[in-house]
Fold this protein.
Amino acid sequence: MNGKKLQALVSYVMCLFMSGCAAVAPAPSKHPPRTVSDAKIEKKELREGKPRPREVASLHLTEQGQMLLESGKVDEAIGVLERAVNIYPANGKNYYYLAEAWLRKGNVTQAREWNRLAGMYLAGDGEWSPRVYEQRGRINVHSR
Amino acid sequence: MIFRKSTKKRIFLSLWILSFIIVLGVLLYCLYLSILIDTRFSGRRWSIPSKVYSDSTLLFPGQPVNRALLINKLRRLEYRNVSHAPESSGEMQILGSSMEVFLRDVEMLAKKQKGYHAQIAFRNQEIESIIRKDNGEKLPLLELEPEKIMLFFGPERQQRQLVSIDRAPKYLIHAVLAAEDNRFFEHHGFDFRSILRAIYINIRHGMIRQGGSTLTQQLAKSYFLTPERTFARKIKELLMALTMELKYRKQEIFEIYLNEIYLGQKGSVSINGVGEAAFFYFGKPVENLSLAEAATIAGLVKSPGLYSPYVSEAKSREQRNKVLHDMEKLGYITKKQMDGAAAEPVKTVGFMAYGKKAPYFVDYVSKQLPTLYSPNVLSSQGLSIYTTVDTQVQEAAENALERGLARLENAYPALRRSHPERKLQGAIIVMQPKTGYILAMVGGRDYSTTQFNRATQARRQPGSAIKPFVYLTGLDQFTPATVLSNEQRTYEVNGKSWKPHGKSSDSGKGIRMRDALARSDNLATVDLAMKVGLDRLVDTVKAFQFSTPVKPQPSLALGAYEVIPLELARAYCTFASDGLEPYPLSLKTLVDENGNILEQRHMTIQNVISPAKAYVISDMLRSVVTEGTAKSVKNMGITFPVAGKTGTTNDYRDAWFVGYTPDLLILVWVGFDNGESVSAEGAVAALPIWADLVRAIPQYISGEWFKVPPGVVMVKICSQSGQLATESKCPEPIEEVFLEGNVPIEYCQIPEHKAYSGEVLKTWWKKLWKR
């Protein structure tokens, strides 16, 4: 079993363990949503690696959506993230934040679908995969 | 004497009583008018039409762009093309390899954006950079404001932008006073001196040159009364003016007047109030009007039809200068100011008459508005309806359909019809598959001829365009490499025999599933449908939420049942969005006139199939375009990866093409409303329209293909047997996609391709070490 598989298994077991608790409110996130400064660094990295123009534009909107989400403007955040998806559908971070937004709106079904997509598009991303798993755990807690 | 005295007394008493009754009557009538005025003023003063907006437009560096469509877009947004660098908001300058735009302030929902001067540089039909001119900052994204695509007018068809008196420049107030009623702030609604002066001037000139009505009387006339000229109406107007003056402050009356006056005509819509007039004539908010412009607007009050600069610049200028002269005479401006303003030309911005843009789309959106918003509410309450439509895509779609149908009629003269309602028709739907955003919708050739929306209301047979759903149903048991029977045969279904129509190339030899779908092979498709079972096929179709009834009959596999084009487009979106079916989204937000959100809709998705299955179907549909029925698209300038499917029904009644990329899905349908034959297949009738449209909207094409999801593997197979290829033996080995767990395990069984067991072992050993 390689490192990634082991990591995934451990995360999954942790999620199962956490979801087994009787808590009603979601457990505090081990991986709090990334800050805007993190996203800025990421965009800078992208620029250095000559990313696709669509990716840069999409990430710019992801950042806006994240800020709106952090300030509690969930509906506005969803609107911006939808545009980000339309510009660059392969930007998995949009799906992560969409799942987050729908979770905040209490729509577990939609949150689960977006989280699934986030998992698919961010698979292999050492930093984001654990966040996606952790989010899945919170969605599961909510769905009980 | 006694008699005379008593008679006099009686007459006096009668007169007194009569006067008392008249005064009482007038007072009671004034009380009634007061209630009437109160009701009107305390409620809504004006009907403001609700507006339907497109989505905002995003521009970013590296984005391919159709410059002609972009410039049209800016023009529709009423950006004025100027010959110098833009200096104020709403101006643009189009240069060879760049354009400069001074964006307007945007206040939309939670978003507030101050306008700024931006330079957009182009290189090879792409945006090279976007730079903010005031600070030199390179922008990653630029957002153009939503475009107004329709106004819900009431029967009066008035358009106005309300302004408060505090926003109106002094020049404008003085100009209106000088032109219409310079003693407004001195009289009480009725000005005897004005009437005497008007009589004197009219007698002196031997014609009606001046009216004696005060502003308050004019307001009473236009706001409450009908236009007939009778003595009774004049009295009513006078009493109403006096009542208004008693009840309201002069400032309030003046403000209502500024917003009420009729100032011109934009097509069939009347321009009311100085706020709307400032935009209509000079393209700027009222507070930015110059002295000359303010005087021009004030001069229009007398007769907009006569003095409109759009009707006669000379007459407009003459009337403006008369107002300026009166202003100078009354001491509102100096002689120097008057001379300066009088020397200026009357420069208007030009206008585009209100038309219903994207009419079928707007109808579709209107039908979704909750019943709470009746036509009466929509025409009066100034709601803003934000939608998903992109007017650049809409324009390109309308053009592509019109060109495509005309081209077909030229190629096949039998398709021409003289009666407009019987002409060849078509429909186009453009969607973003991941989110379900409807970017454009064309429901027919000419909305003015027929409002029947063929994109959302027509029920047509999809023909072969249904086949991907048959092959999807087969993916649980079979693979793209499975060889299907393409033999002509008769099937027994429910005790009845049925023989499918259609030919098959290399009939009887068998055909791999991928090729059968690519070539739209009817016999092989029916073979597959019968193998998987008709009930399972019905289940698959139902899972995609078609609203039309579907029955387990063998012809279902060939698309012999009806679908609504929008529902077919939506179902195809599932293949382009990792198996998630989106809800088609057109209405995003409904906002009241104070900016409060009344309704907000987001994309919603539903998991219908696995991402792996969606990918395999997309990959198979790519073969339709590279080597199948739609391969002619390569000669139409489409060089990026596309998945798609043609569709043709019995007797060529319907021609379809549905094509998509990860970014965009477009459905095109062509046919006659009465089911006559279009004499051409989907690849001939619908595909060229699709290609024409896609070429026109490069901003939506990334040129990328789908990311391979988990659960999909690539394996080398023999192109003849569909089994695992034996290295060096199978002459045409090809890479094929498979669902993990459904990969062929047998090596090629064609005798000439069979490998020695040693070779099989060698291959196996090599593969093991590759891992």
Q: What stands out?
A: The radius of gyration of chain A is 15 Å.
